[in-house]
Inverse folding.
């Protein structure tokens, strides 16, 4: 861990320690169902190959056809602004109004559905790899929300292997990411200084490990075979519900109530930290919009109040329970903080969500920071998780951090034996 921290500090110092680090602006309560997609039906890790299409969509539940504008900015690996001029990373221009929007059809909750596709006639292409921030502004030029995304240019091959930790203290709870970077015939110059790997669990940019230097080389192949420094708490399989038929109870929806909008009451979820691990297929925290009440889920899916509840004793002062998932970009915020019901002995919270299939989990945070070990869901080394490894590189004399490779692996193939 000391190696990782020292390397991260050195890399940060060299690449602009005193510049402002950009953070995402969470969507306000009236902006719902923000989905980032490439050429996939699922909202995904905001990672695109250079030249791929970017699609982002969202709903405004005020439904008054408000004007929204978008801008795109390029960043270094540490999310400080890069020195590139916009003309160097963009073919075309931005600060343009989003013209693709449609009002909801025959829904109790009115909303306006917006969709942005890049390339388009104004923003024809993004021409550099690296980190980007998409900012959505209103007609008063105020940032409504922003989202990070990354573009990679595959110049190296990244092999990823998921292992059970060798740390006896956490052998039942952690998974380790080992990986290698094959540069081919073109070696990476001074990789201890110029190469920066980033490890991501379950498409969650709030849960990453970065800055590990290579342990050794075999030719032009960098080897990263850490244990403690590259380990993640494995968590548990996500809970899930589906309400594509908003009027019907299911094995996860206990009962329905129709007031101004539909209310779907989920069965109370158990605390699983003290239970035996049970495999349950999931989509690793993601969500899919679906409806049986119309043909086009983008504009005909209903919004319903989903009532979440989890059985757990009241936590100590300063600790709170949050609903966690890609549906709100894994942000720990008051909008997803649950209230304790002392009579029922449960934490509960209703959320307004669009019809579909959702993965979610419960996390405990102290002062807005998630506890490393989850006292509600628990951590089990057998949990099926998805891991991405991104490789950034600053060429000698280069002016920006390139994203030159990406690897991916599922822990379904987890091993207790390290392979060369």
């Amino acid at each position: 861990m000391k190696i990782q921290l020292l390397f991260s500090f050195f890399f940060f110092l060299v690449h602009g320690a005193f510049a402002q680090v950009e953070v995402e602006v969470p969507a306000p309560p009236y902006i719902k169902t923000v989905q980032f997609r490439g050429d996939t039906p699922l909202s995904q890790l905001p990672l695109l190959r250079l030249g791929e299409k970017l699609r982002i969509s969202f709903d405004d539940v005020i439904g008054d056809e408000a004007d929204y504008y978008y801008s795109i900015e390029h960043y270094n690996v540490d999310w400080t602004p890069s020195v590139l001029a916009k003309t160097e990373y963009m073919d075309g221009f931005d600060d343009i109004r989003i013209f693709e929007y449609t009002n909801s059809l025959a829904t109790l909750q009115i909303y306006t559905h917006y969709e942005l596709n890049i390339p388009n006639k104004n923003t024809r292409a993004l021409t550099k790899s690296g980190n980007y921030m998409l900012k959505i502004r209103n007609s008063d030029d105020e940032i409504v929300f922003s989202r990070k995304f990354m573009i990679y240019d595959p110049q190296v091959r990244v092999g990823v292997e998921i292992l059970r930790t060798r740390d006896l203290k956490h052998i039942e709870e952690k998974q380790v990411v080992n990986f290698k970077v094959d540069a081919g015939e073109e070696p990476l110059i001074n990789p201890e200084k110029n190469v920066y790997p980033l490890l991501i669990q379950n498409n969650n940019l709030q849960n990453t490990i970065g800055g590990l230097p290579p342990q050794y080389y075999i030719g032009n192949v960098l080897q990263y075979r850490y244990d403690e420094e590259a380990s993640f708490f494995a968590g548990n399989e996500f809970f899930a519900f589906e309400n594509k038929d908003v009027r019907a109870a299911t094995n996860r929806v206990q009962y329905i109530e129709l007031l101004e909008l539909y209310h779907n009451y989920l069965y109370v979820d158990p605390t699983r930290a003290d239970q035996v691990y049970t495999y349950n297929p999931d989509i690793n925290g993601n969500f899919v919009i679906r409806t049986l009440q119309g043909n086009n889920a983008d504009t005909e899916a209903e919004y319903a109040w989903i009532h979440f509840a989890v059985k757990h004793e009241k936590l100590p002062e300063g600790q709170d329970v949050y609903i966690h998932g890609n549906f709100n970009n894994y942000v720990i915020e008051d909008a997803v903080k649950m209230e304790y019901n002392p009579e029922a002995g449960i934490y509960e919270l209703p959320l307004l969500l669009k019809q579909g299939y959702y993965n979610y989990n419960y996390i405990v945070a102290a002062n807005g920071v998630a506890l490393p070990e989850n006292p509600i869901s628990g951590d089990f080394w057998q949990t099926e998780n998805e891991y991405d490894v991104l490789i950034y590189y600053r060429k000698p004399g280069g002016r920006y951090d390139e994203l030159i490779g990406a690897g991916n692996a599922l822990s379904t193939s987890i091993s207790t034996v390290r392979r060369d």
Summary: Confidence is low (pLDDT under 50) at residues 1-6. The CA atoms of residues 313 and 345 lie 6 Å apart. The chain has three domains: 20-152, 157-234+382-413, 239-370.
